[in-house]
Design a protein that fits this description.
By secondary structure, this protein is α+β, with helices and mostly antiparallel strands. Helix content is about 40%, strand content about 20%. It is built from two helices and three strands, in the order βββαα. The longest helix is centred in the C-terminal third of the chain and has 22 residues, at about 45-69. The chain binds zinc ion. Zinc ion binds near residues 22, 23, 25 and 45.
Length: about 70
């Protein structure tokens, strides 16, 4: 399974968030980006969240196509 994460750097407190591309949950927060990989490897997407975001993405795509035509 292809899994990827976006890292968001928080300038306020210097922490780094890891956000899952599939379920959009913040899966880990660490003070160093290098600490995120171990935490990311342990993440398992909630199937209900994943399905919900896939349905939202499909609805947004259909809405975009309607607006473009
Ligand atoms: Zn996930």
């Amino acid at each position: 399974m292809d899994r990827a994460f976006t890292h968001r750097f928080n300038t306020g407190d210097g922490t780094v968030d890891s956000i899952c591309h599939r379920c959009f949950h913040t899966v880990a927060i660490a003070s160093r980006e290098s600490d995120l990989q171990t935490l990311e490897q342990k993440h398992v997407c909630d199937p209900e969240d994943k399905l919900r975001f896939e349905l939202i993405a499909e609805a947004a795509k259909l809405h975009y196509l309607e607006q473009a035509s």
